[in-house]
Inverse folding.
């Protein structure tokens, strides 16, 4: 006897013996831990690998297999009755997948077998595939008999020439030998926008699984790992200054009032408009390209002024009322208002004036206010907004 894990009349019931990294692993129980995973190096006493189940309840490790140079086994913890665990021989086992708890069917993974670069196993009435990276994928139903009393059976899968041979049932509940070709493809796609997958237009990144029929009517399981490289085309506007929210990729600012032509030299993240107009930015990362929304920039304020001092025109923008402060009193001043279409809408001559009030006629838009007194002239761009 190598070791008595359960001294006395009771048995430790060792089973599921498996060799990994020159150690013997097995399932056994003692009076303290319940049924757990143990290792034995032929020199020392067997060692408890890990308590994947808190308390003395069985974790019941079984169906051991080496996959991707690590030990995989079926077990359970306090959260689920059926799980797949990965163990590297050194650190604590890691739970890779869980299958919940089903009172009618056995939800514990079993019948582990390698075929190609994947691990195949059964859970309840389905055959699953696992690549060691992504979540396991359900492939086919093995038993069309839905009676719980017949839910557990041994498909006895074997791998030969890239195919799985196993025992299953047809819709009429007749048992037979079946072959499952490795008809499972994985596709990783990185796209800039939407992607069409088997007739469906996908707009969100994620993992998608679908069944595609070939010309012979056989099923092919395709798993799509979709990555959408969405560019950030948001823009922060501070009056005439536009700032792209994308701080990584390339930029090209365009003038939308002039056929959306690129503005020469404006390839930075920050753009300052020099004239009133509509602008946008094209963002590109070399593979994907997208354009922001259009932003209106209104340049208001003084256009020219030959008066000695500053003339204040406020508020600007305005809903209509406008105050003009000339800074000092002038004997004669002419105030001219041109509308958005360039036509003269109003012209007033005032005498002995320092401050006056006007009201912009017409709809919202950009108006030009001209103030003249003798040889002095000042022009202002004033914006009228809607209430």
């Amino acid at each position: 006897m190598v070791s008595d894990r359960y001294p006395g009349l009771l048995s430790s019931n060792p089973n599921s013996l498996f060799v990994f990294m020159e150690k013997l692993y097995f399932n056994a129980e003692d009076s303290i831990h319940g049924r757990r995973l143990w290792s034995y190096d032929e020199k020392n006493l067997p060692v408890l690998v890990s308590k994947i189940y808190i308390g003395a309840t069985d974790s019941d490790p079984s169906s051991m297999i080496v996959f991707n140079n690590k030990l995989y086994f079926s077990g359970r913890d306090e959260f689920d009755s059926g799980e797949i665990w990965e163990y590297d021989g050194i650190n604590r086992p890691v739970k890779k997948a869980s299958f919940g708890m089903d009172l009618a069917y056995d939800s514990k993974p079993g019948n582990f077998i390698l075929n190609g670069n994947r691990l195949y196993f059964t859970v309840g009435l389905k055959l699953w595939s696992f690549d060691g990276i992504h979540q396991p994928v359900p492939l086919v139903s093995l038993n069309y008999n839905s009676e719980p009393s017949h839910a557990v059976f041994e498909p006895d899968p074997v791998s030969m020439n890239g195919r799985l041979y196993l025992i299953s049932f047809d819709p009429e509940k007749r048992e037979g030998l079946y072959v499952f070709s490795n008809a499972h493809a994985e596709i990783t796609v990185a796209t800039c926008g939407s992607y069409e997958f088997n007739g469906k237009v996908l707009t969100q990144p994620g993992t998608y699984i679908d069944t595609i029929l070939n010309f012979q009517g056989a099923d092919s399981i395709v798993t799509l790992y979709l990555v959408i490289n969405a560019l950030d085309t948001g823009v922060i506007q501070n009056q005439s200054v536009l700032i792209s929210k994308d701080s990584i990729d390339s930029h090209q600012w365009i003038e939308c009032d002039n056929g959306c032509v690129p503005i020469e030299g404006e390839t930075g993240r920050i753009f300052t408009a020099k004239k009133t107009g509509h602008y946008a930015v094209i963002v590109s990362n070399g593979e994907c390209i997208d354009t922001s929304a259009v932003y209106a920039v209104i340049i208001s304020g003084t256009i020219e002024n030959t008066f000695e001092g500053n003339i204040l025109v406020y508020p600007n923008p305005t809903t209509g009322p406008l105050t003009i402060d000339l800074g000092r009193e002038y004997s004669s001043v002419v105030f001219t208002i041109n509308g958005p279409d360039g036509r003269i809408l109003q012209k007033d001559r005032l005498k002995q004036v320092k401050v006056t009030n006007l009201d912009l006629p017409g709809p919202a838009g950009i108006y030009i206010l001209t103030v003249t007194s003798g040889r002095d002239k000042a022009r202002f761009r004033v914006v009228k907004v809607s209430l």
Notes: The chain has no helices and 34 strands. The chain has four domains: 15-160, 188-228, 235-297, 301-384.
